[in-house]
Amino acid sequence: MDTLFDVAVIGAGPGGYVAAIRAAQLGLRTVCIDDFKDAAGKASLGGTCLNVGCIPSKALLESSENYEKAIHKFHEHGITASDVKMDVSKMLSRKNRIVKQFTSGISLLFKKNKVTNIHGSAEIISSGELVRLKISGLKEEYIEAKNVIIATGSSPREMDSVPVDNEYICDNKGALSLTQTPKHLLVIGAGVIGLEMGSVWKRLGAKVTVLEALPNFLGAVDESVSKEAKRIFTKNVGLDIHLGCSVQKVTRKNKVITVTYTEASATKTLECDRIVVAVGRVPNSDDVGLDNVGIKVDERGFITVDHHNRTNVSNIYAIGDVVRGPMLAHKSSEEGVAVAETISGQYGDVNLDTIPWVIYTSPEIAWVGQTEQALKEEGVPYKVGKFPFVASGRAQAIGDSSGFVKMIAHEETDRILGVHVIGPYASELISEAVVAMEFGATSEDIARIVHAHPSLSEAMHEAALGIDNRYLSL
Ligand code: FAD
Ligand code: NAD
Question: N or C: which end of the chain has fewer CB within 10 A?
């Protein structure tokens, strides 16, 4: 095997595998080293996203939503579906099949693009014109590379008082593989994973309690959206959400888990049979050999990089969850592309201000740009247009008319500053807003574009019209 490369990528998640493919496309001799193993102990490419994150969670969300629709929604259409049952093991097999299809697809993409792939754990040993790496896998081997891209991702943040065993107390890995529906599932952390996983098991029949440490619900989201989301998740979805809670102690006797927590300074207990801990993620920056070459990390362990993802060692870059910015797959991938292009002498850049966020609950939540509360705090003058899906013909036909599209534009320049959607297919609708913001569009630009009728995108059009109070359907 070659031991000298132009680019060595550490990690084959959506950041690393995309960086490796793009580097190889640009004619750079590229190796990608990854240490992820699946449940059977076999090497599996794709990192968190493909193995235990984005893809399996979306598969379960889809299955559970179909089940719930068959029980609670079909009758509205005149469809009788009696004796509807959920076979959890079949649902998991489907999820596993989809995961396998994508993880093995990356091996094929590596072969097609001539990326060398090594399974093992990589550690940077020394830097200089050539960076030396030790790889501990089936055997110990050493390689050298002119450039290194660290894409080691993140791991679930642990709680000392709630140790994960991935049988009774689960992180994302266990939450995606529960073999039967819990009777009472406790979710700790009302963030993205907590709400998505809580929704899956609630739809399948579990009682779901969510304990969140902060006093605000979805604090990073536009306040009007988080308020609407809290109302819908509590009233319609049936999640029992408690804010301002601190879990003190967890004990298990056979199948019963007793949880002691405080809420508004009162000590309370609850009993459940499964727990999902989803209290954020921490960067995987400990075992890559950063100290061997003096690479800086910040106080939370994120590798310090400049705007072009370069570390303080000039030929070592870092991308994705292990650096600042949102922990999102598409952000990781775009940084991978940008760094590969930078290394090949092109100009690589990612605009962190226009990264779309999506929470795949029902209704979905998606946003890009700034929230109203942030603009208020910064003293930026703005105008708002807001259009509810209840007035959208397409949303009514779909049978999901909860939520709204909210557009915020600068009061003087009319430039779009943020778009926030809660409602059906928010994940798809948000792309129009991302494109508009990347092109520096004004709300007037969106207002003048013809949107198909009847479509959910008309709600985006109406929100833009609403900025100057020119709603046509309200
Ligand atoms: P990772 O995907 O974490 O990949 C890093 C890889 O590097 C891993 O394979 C790891 O084993 C390997 N590695 C680590 N250290 C070493 C080493 N020393 N040597 C060799 N290999 C190493 N994001 C979205 O955008 N949309 C979603 O819908 C979404 N859903 C999610 C659902 C869940 C349940 C979770 C947990 C996350 C979700 N995310 C989602 C977040 C997304 O998974 C991450 O942002 C993304 O995977 C980060 O990509 P990455 O390449 O930076 O790191
Ligand atoms: P998160 O940051 O979204 O939410 C964690 C929540 O746990 C927060 O609300 C936090 O206040 C709360 N919390 C922290 N400590 C707590 C404690 N001791 N007790 C109770 N609550 C506590 O993190 P996550 O849900 O673990 O997800 C991690 C990241 O993975 C996300 O931020 C996101 O970047 C990514 N992700 C994305 C998607 C998506 O794009 N749809 C889906 C899942 C995960």
Answer: N
Closest by CA position to 333, among listed 463, 210, 149, 462: 149
- Using CB atoms within 10 A of its CB, is residue 346 exposed (0-12), middle (13-18) or buried (19+)? exposed
For ligand 2, residues with CB inside 6 Å are 159, 188-194, 196, 211-214, 247, 278-281, 326-328, 358-360
- What's the gap in Å between 12 CA and the centre of ligand 1? 9
- Residues 134 and 140: beta-carbon distance below 8 Å: yes
DSSP run (H or E) holding 331:
helix 329-343
Q: What is the pLDDT of residues 96-154, one digit of tens each?
A: 999 999 999 999 999 999 999 999 999 999 999 999 999 999 899 999 999 999 999 99
> What's the CATH superfamily of 363-466?
FAD/NAD-linked reductase, C-terminal dimerisation domain (3.30.390.30)
- Structure confidence by residue, pLDDT tens digits, 392-403: 999 999 999 999
Task: State which ligand 1 atom lies nearest to the alpha carbon of 11.
Answer: 7
Indicate which atom in ligand 1 lies nearest the CA of residue 154. 3
Question: Which protein residue's CA is at the shortest distance from atom 11 of ligand 1?
Answer: 36
Give the model's pLDDT for residue 2: 80
Is residue 120 within 8 Å of 32, Cβ to Cβ? no
- Dist. CA 412 → ligand 2 center (Å): 36
Q: Specify the CATH number of the domain 4-156+282-353.
A: 3.50.50.60
What number of other Cβ atoms are within 10 A of residue 267's Cβ?
10
- Pocket around ligand 1: residues whose beta carbon is below 6 Å from it? 10-16, 33-36, 47-49, 53-54, 57, 121-122, 151-154, 172, 193, 284, 287-288, 320-321, 327-330, 332, 360
Locate 33 and state its tokens.
């080293």
Instruction: Answer whether CATH 3.50.50.60 is correct for domain 169-276.
Output: yes
pLDDT of residue 138: 85
Q: What is the pLDDT of residues 168-204, one digit of tens each?
A: 999 999 999 999 999 999 999 999 999 999 999 999 9
The pLDDT of 368-383, averaged and rounded, is 98
Domain layout of the chain by residue ranges: 4-156+282-353, 169-276, 363-466
Pocket test for ligand 1, best of 21, 32, 36, 48 (most atoms within 8 A of CB): 48
pLDDT by residue (tens digit) across 340-366? 999 999 999 999 999 999 999 999 999
* Residue 1: pLDDT over 80: no
Measured between alpha carbons, how far is 171 from 167 in angstroms, rounded to an integer?
10
pTM of the model: 0.97
pLDDT per residue over 220-267, tens digit each? 999 999 999 999 999 999 999 999 999 999 999 999 999 999 999 899
Alpha carbon separation from 101 to 45, 256, 332 (Å, rounded): 11, 37, 21
